[in-house]
Amino acid sequence: MSKSSTRGPTSALVPDADGQYPLFGEVPQHAQGAVAPQTEAGSQFSSYVVYVDESGDHGLETVDPNYPVFVLAFCVFHKRHYAQAVVPAVEAFKFRHFGHDVVVLHETDIRKEKGAFRFGNREHKEAFLDELTGIIEASNFILIACVIDKRRLRERGSNPYHLALGFCLETLYEFMQEKRQDTLVTHVVVECRGNKEDRDLELEFRRICDGVNRLDKPLPFEAVFADKKTNSSGLQLADLVARPIGRATLLPEQPNRAFEVLKRKFFCSGGRKNVGDGYEGWGLRIYPAPESEKPR
Fold first, then answer.
1. What is the pTM of this model?
2. CA–CA separation, 21 vs 34, rounded Å?
3. Which of 173, 172, 140 is nearest to 262 (CA)?
4. To pair with 122 at 20 to 30 A between CA atoms, which of 44, 54, 170, 178?
């Protein structure tokens, strides 16, 4: 991600009776029936889908002094907006730049200019990143993330991934409560990392959702494991947002245009009318918590 773009919807959003703002803009009349409302009578699934990715190594044996954090990011999309706006935008972007849509957008490969991301010159790369940032900026999703400072966690012997997962799932439930969808099943899509890692993650996911959490209640979430080669727009966007969050935490004084875009995506206190504020310790948690962080 690079500098902010002005591309995307510009129509004003109007809050509902509860003062909450919609997560997606107006949908063209001809497309409104493309995805049936997920909360209609008899439906067991919520209107939202969650895509998850990480940045950094979750192990504590070694800590990279240049990036001593582990970041877990949840991107929460409304299914209608995701199907009718996000996916088409990502697909069109790929056709413009690669001539096909098989390429998988991966932050590390883009940053290091590997594989399909060998740019002819700096201007080409900047234009590519600017357009990609514009897609992320125009895509309406809720961001929930946890940054684990492994330097401070090391002596405690806790599992960074499990700690971050617990926070993100608890916060996701609070978001679902806000949207009155906490009685419906929401799928949480994660990338496969290996047989042992996937088994451990599934066990921890189930343990948290069975009620071993800060809220002390069962959580209506189901994990979906996707192969790393899965060409999912949601997983690719989650991959692109995780590292800028980590960099902003490590170097808060350093300019970070990508994070400036993401700040307006975080779940925050006061609902969507307060986007860009009140997200620290809410939609973004740093653990162990800085002394300056406000208690929740």
1. 0.84
2. 23
3. 140
4. 54
